[in-house]
TrEMBL record:
Cited Pfam families: O-FucT
Database matches in Gene3D superfamilies: 3.40.50.11350
GO biological process, one term: fucose metabolic process
Family statement: Belongs to the glycosyltransferase GT106 family.
Protein name per Swiss-Prot or TrEMBL: O-fucosyltransferase family protein
Region (Disordered) residue spans: 1-35
Domain of life according to the entry: Eukaryota
MF GO annotations: glycosyltransferase activity
InterPro entries for the chain: FucosylTrfase_pln (IPR024709), GDP-Fuc_O-FucTrfase (IPR019378)
Keyword Metal-binding: no
Keyword annotations of the record: Carbohydrate metabolism, Fucose metabolism, Glycosyltransferase, Membrane, Transferase, Transmembrane, Transmembrane helix
Organism for this UniProt entry: Pyrus ussuriensis x Pyrus communis
Length: 570
């Protein structure tokens, strides 16, 4: 019995296959006995199959081809450019894309065109976002949260929030959610003195403590201090309370199975640090507590709100020609950020030396480990380099924002600010920062407290008509979500394609019209992505729909329906 063959009848057992040469000879002799003539389609199919089988060996070279391509991409291998001048061959070295910071040359070419258009552009700020969106969203956190009061607490939940302003914010909101899940009483979060931020502020210095406790009263019990009997159990020292080691992104089931028994047994548990300790995907009731904490209960302290409101009013007044609308930019071009990115600009050997010192100071040997290869050109082409103030300015001018636009720059201490900020101020004379928008006396209580200063930036950016993010991080992620929550689901944020920008800024010969077209396409893309629903792997702090917001009928239709209802009632 022989197995089935797709090629026809089985060959007798033990009979070796005939040699190709013999088969070829037999085919020649049998030429006169061939079957029906093949159609053109059959011939094409046979030809393609034969080509594939004859060139199978090419697949063996695929890894080599891939490695060669990566070497070219990383800038290890460069091709020489050969040109003819007066019958003489000229060989010049061509730098790979992104290996040289060419933005100043691009600016030099495009600046005359920007000047020529300064007084001829329309008021982009009045119509920067598409008003044809048919669906709007509104906050609806309270719909799923009960106001029936709280059952007896299972114990006290203590967390330590570390990092900067928005890392602390994330820890606080997650702690509220976990406290609600465990039916625990939350102690006002303790702030860890971060080695990078070096801010000794407490919760009450940054957030309104009374408002936080009051706003959560029907959802999570919050206290400022532990009761005396609980402290006595641990010799009046919070650090004696057991610190549970909880893995990052732990599920609600983990907290119920592992943390809750300890809480009920000891009356108090502590998790320090408490950063990213709760999974992104959790039941809707837990998500709603996150929403409530972030968007409704966490407001800045009175001292921060007072100055921040003044700064917003001043920006609105300075942009009165634009209907009180202004652009805010989160600029990440501090020395530490430039050093960490391992990108190179136009500072030469002095810059390289300064960056080496900065990397060693902040990360102590991390970038000198064996096998660590730094490729600035590859980083730039991959969109990982911080945008310079010059590049941000060119991008905005290309999008259509003219030199009368009021711009607020949220940033720390800019690396070589005098040099790098000059072209941005040249393109946007109405430019403000904390130090120019507020007086030295107003800022004095905030000096040395980076989280409080960041809170000022956060508020001014929150209320701008356009927010521009340039490098990622917690600040823009939280801000985009907060803006979606306030502005009907639209983040009103420009999130540039930095890979595309790297290639455009690498071309000193680019035409102004081509550059403008690319920038305006980028602006349209940001507009389209402004309203975006949360995916399972995303954070609701950036994408509050649909966990924190509900879809509402088109505003125009809704207003028309309301009018009809009014007419009927009258």
């Amino acid at each position: 019995m022989h197995g089935y063959s797709r090629l026809g009848n089985p060959r007798p057992a033990g009979s070796p296959p005939s040699s190709p040469r013999c088969r070829h000879g037999r085919n020649k002799n049998a030429a006169g006995r061939r079957g029906p003539k093949q159609s053109i389609l059959e011939k094409v199919v046979v030809l393609l199959i034969s080509v594939v089988f004859k060139r199978r060996a090419v697949l063996l070279f695929a890894p080599l081809l891939y490695l060669s391509g990566m070497l070219l991409y990383m800038g290890t291998v460069n091709f020489d450019v050969v040109s003819l001048k007066h019958a003489v061959v000229v060989v010049s070295k061509r730098s790979p894309p992104g290996s040289v910071y060419r933005s100043p040359q691009v600016f030099h070419k495009l600046w005359p065109h920007m000047q020529a258009e300064s007084n001829h552009t329309h008021n982009l700020l009045m119509a920067v976002w598409n008003s044809k969106v048919r669906q709007v969203w509104k906050p609806c956190i309270s719909n799923d949260i009960s106001n029936e009061g709280l059952p007896k607490s299972n114990g006290f939940f203590i967390i330590e929030a570390n990092g900067g302003l928005n890392q602390q914010r994330l820890s606080i909101c997650d702690a509220v959610a976990v406290a609600g899940l465990l039916n625990a009483t939350l102690l006002i979060p303790i702030f860890h003195l971060n080695s990078v931020w070096k801010d000794s502020s407490h919760f009450g210095n940054i957030f309104d403590e009374d408002f936080f406790i009051h706003a959560l009263r029907n959802h999570v019990n919050v206290v400022r201090e532990l009761p005396g009997d609980i402290l006595e159990r641990f010799d009046n020292n919070i650090s004696n309370i057991v610190n549970l080691r909880v893995k990052g992104w732990s599920s609600p089931a983990y907290y119920l199975q592992k943390v809750l028994p300890k809480l009920e047994q000891m009356g108090a548990v502590r998790i320090a640090p408490f950063s990213n300790r709760l999974a992104l995907a959790v039941p809707s009731k837990v998500q709603r507590l996150r929403c409530l904490a972030n968007f409704e209960t966490l407001r800045f302290s009175n001292s921060i709100r007072t100055l921040a409101d003044k700064m917003v009013e001043r920006m609105v007044k300075s942009s009165s020609q634009r209907g009180g609308k202004y652009v805010s930019v989160h600029l990440r071009f501090e020395e530490d950020m430039v050093a960490f990115s391992c990108c190179e600009y136009d500072g030469g050997e002095e810059e390289k030396h300064e960056m080496d010192i900065a990397r060693e100071r902040s990360w102590r040997g991390k970038f000198r480990r064996r096998g660590r290869v730094i490729r600035p050109g590859a980083n730039r082409v991959d969109g990982k380099c911080p945008l310079t103030p010059l590049e941000v300015g060119m991008m905005l001018r290309g999008m259509g924002f003219d030199n009368t636009t009021s711009v607020y720059v949220a940033a720390g201490k800019i690396y070589k600010a005098e040099k790098y900020m000059a072209p941005l101020k040249q393109m946007f004379p109405h430019l403000e920062m904390k130090d120019t928008l507020a007086t030295a006396e107003e800022l004095a209580p905030f000096k040395g407290h980076l989280s409080r200063l960041a809170a000022l930036d956060y508020t001014v950016c929150l209320h701008s008509e356009v927010f521009v993010t340039t490098q990622g991080g917690n600040f823009p992620h939280f801000l985009m979500g907060h803006r979606r929550y306030l502005y009907g689901g639209h983040s009103k944020t420009i999130k540039p394609d930095k890979r595309k920008l790297a290639l455009l800024f690498d071309n000193p010969n680019i035409r102004w019209e081509d550059f403008k077209r690319q920038m305006q396409d980028m602006l349209r893309h940001s507009d389209q992505k402004g309203v975006e629903l949360k995916k399972p792997s995303a954070s609701l702090y950036t994408f509050p729909m649909p966990d924190c917001m509900c879809k509402e009928a088109d505003a125009r239709n809704e207003s028309g329906n309301e009018t009809n209802k009014t007419d009927l009632n009258t």
